[in-house]
Specification:
The protein has 599 residues and is α/β, with parallel strands linked by helices. It is 34% helix and 13% strand. Among the domains are: 111 residues, no CATH class; 203 residues, no CATH class. The strands form five sheets. The protein has a four-stranded antiparallel β-sheet with strand order 2-1-14-15. Strands 9-3-11 form a three-stranded parallel β-sheet. Helix 5 packs across helix 11.
Length: 599
């Protein structure tokens, strides 16, 4: 008799092959393109993502962080011919931190993608620190009660030609103003040279891009003109942006500035995944000659010419949990059945752990090939070193499901996003994946939140055994599917932001032979299969509160499900579709969903 949950050894092997073949294709493409820097167009990225309104209204419910809240309206019927009502959900952005991100020099030479930059000098850490200030200054213009101030810490200024202190890093700023010099002294200061803070209810909250430079090697500033390093007015967002533009033109490092911009965008996420950000030790030289201002006055910034695009990027950037969910989606294939996802993941990481795939230039191209809409996040992620944490979680099938940020970025993050595939005429059976979609779309009791499992459930359910909400809509001829109809910030009028349901990714068919790829099965290990936990989570979402139909007796008696619970508990209820479930199961589900961002 076939096992009701475990796939056969042959099926497990085939799903392993699918994961391996998918990623080996990306690997082969990356081998031929890794010598070239990817073209990243930040000016047109995440065009559907909202941006913080001017002088946003803060959510006062949380005293630990500053939060901003909005509300989504989700559509449930794509063609509008079904009475299934749309539903609303709350979404919260955390827009402050309680500590700066520590940035230091890598103890050993670190890649920094410098071979992609035409200029041999390495200015990455300077420009990352500079962009972090710009983001914080923009944040201070938007958040009520926020401001930026210089601290007493300053980088040293070399006014003469005397000897340099040991291990110092000389930064040539060219011919600049006193205000620009004071700003660079704050940005390149040991520790915190500036402080972006919002005061609310007598508490101080830091900008998410706050930084502290920690290293025994200090920066020493030099200029072509003689200046006094005095305590000036902190630079505004626009002035700080100009200071960076002048530096970039003077040293001809526009590519590095764009890379540093992406690294700075990832600083809030890095706080969640690691203790500090290590960047390459700068290689700095005295510029051969200054570039006239007219040469670069019309150059666009990394975000393009539309300042609203910068605000969209900042809104996404401060949403660290959402960014983690997006990056994790790169390692998800939602239409792999949940009981075989471990095989697909093993095959994928058999390629991702190849020695050549560990080269960051090759790895970045692989990740971009897989998720091109997330390319700028992966570029910044590899610069700040967060990829290891993301990949470690993905290898264990520990994913965050954030449908909100997925819809804004056109990212497939869960099977629940796909439209239903109901057969015509009215079926007597429904796939469990469609059953789950209808349970969520109808917001049935205990199914108001999406499954925390991105992979689809396998098999079918008799329609008569489904919840009433599901039965009703199996008879409906409408096209059911999830889409984001509108978004509004708290105390703001609803704005139309229609986002259609996301189409399915193309996957290699089980029946299609994998040509020209030799599969390495050394990483195939059924003893380390993570599918058990994922499958249990999926069935707890499906049946944990409503009970199992009699036809699923073999499933709920299976050791993957029943073996997880204590022996003295009653068997799961059968057949009534509304029976109560064990309190422990409900508590477990609530605990898991509370760790996910709001949808």
């Amino acid at each position: 008799m076939d096992d009701p949950l475990r796939p056969s050894d042959e099926a497990f092997k085939q799903y392993y092959e699918r994961g391996y073949a998918t990623w080996y294709t990306h690997y082969q493409q990356a081998l031929s393109s890794a010598q070239y820097a990817p073209h990243l167009d930040l000016g047109h990225a995440i065009s559907q993502h909202p941006r913080f309104p001017s002088r946003i209204e803060l959510d006062q419910e949380n005293s630990r962080f500053l939060n901003v809240t909005g509300y989504s309206t989700w559509g449930t019927t794509i063609d509008g011919s079904c009475p299934l009502a749309p539903f609303k959900s709350k979404y919260t952005f955390q827009i402050s931190t309680n500590r700066p991100t520590v940035i230091s020099l890598a103890p050993e030479p670190r890649f920094g993608f410098t071979k992609w930059f035409r200029n041999k000098d390495n200015h990455l850490i300077l420009l990352t620190l500079a962009w972090a200030y710009v983001f914080s200054a923009r944040w201070a213009e938007i958040v009520p009660g926020a401001s930026v101030n210089y601290t007493k810490n300053q980088a040293s200024y070399r006014g003469g030609t005397g000897p340099l202190p040991t291990e110092s890093l000389l930064v040539d700023l060219g011919n600049i103003s006193s205000d620009a010099l004071r700003w660079w002294a704050a940005v390149l200061s040991p520790g915190e040279g500036w402080d972006a803070v919002a005061v609310s209810h007598n508490r101080r909250f830091k900008s998410p891009w706050s930084t502290a430079y920690q290293s025994s090697r200090h920066f020493i500033l030099c200029t072509q003109n003689t200046l006094n390093l005095f305590s000036g007015t902190p630079a505004s967002f626009s002035n700080a942006t100009k200071f960076i533009s002048n530096y970039v033109a003077y040293h001809n490092v526009a590519q590095q500035s764009h890379a540093a911009f992406m690294a700075a965008l990832m600083l809030p996420t890095s706080q969640v995944t690691k203790k500090q950000v290590l960047l390459p030790t700068p290689q700095l030289s005295i510029a051969a000659k200054p570039v006239p201002l007219s040469h670069h006055q019309n150059e666009s910034q990394p975000w393009g010419k539309d300042e609203a695009q910068l605000d969209r990027l900042l809104t996404l950037s401060c949403n660290a949990q959402g960014v983690i969910a997006l990056l994790s989606s790169t390692f998800i294939e939602p239409f792999i059945p949940c009981n075989a996802c471990g095989a697909w993941i093993q095959g994928a990481f058999a390629v991702l752990t190849l020695s050549d795939a560990k080269d960051p230039h090759i790895l970045l191209h692989m990740l971009i090939n897989r998720s091109p809409q997330l390319s700028f996040l992966w570029f910044g992620g590899l610069l700040t070193g967060i990829q290891d944490s993301i990949m470690k979680q993905a290898r264990a099938a520990l994913f965050r499901i954030d449908l909100q940020v997925a819809a804004w970025t056109n990212t497939l993050i869960s099977f629940i996003q796909s439209p239903l595939t109901l057969a015509i005429p009215v079926p007597t059976e429904i796939s469990r994946s469609d059953e789950a979609r209808l349970m969520f779309l109808s917001q049935a009791d205990f199914h108001e939140l999406p499954p925390i499992v991105p992979f689809e459930p396998f098999g079918k359910t008799a329609v008569k055994d489904c919840l009433l909400e599901v039965q009703i809509h199996t008879k409906c001829r409408s096209s059911h599917g999830l889409y984001l109809a509108s978004w509004a910030w708290n105390h703001e009028s609803t704005t139309n932001n229609s986002t259609p349901a996301i189409p399915m990714k193309q996957a290699i068919s089980l029946d299609t032979p994998v040509d020209n790829i030799t599969i390495d099965f050394n990483n195939l290990d059924r003893e380390k299969d993570c599918s058990e936990t994922v499958t249990r989570s999926m069935f707890l979402w499906l049946r944990g509160e409503d009970g199992y139909p009699p036809t699923e007796r073999e499933i709920y008696k299976h050791e993957w499900i029943d073996g997880w619970e204590s022996d003295d508990e009653d068997a799961p209820p059968e057949g009534d579709g509304r029976s109560s479930r064990h309190n422990r199961v409900r508590s477990w589900l609530l605990g898991m969903t509370k760790r996910q961002p709001s949808i």
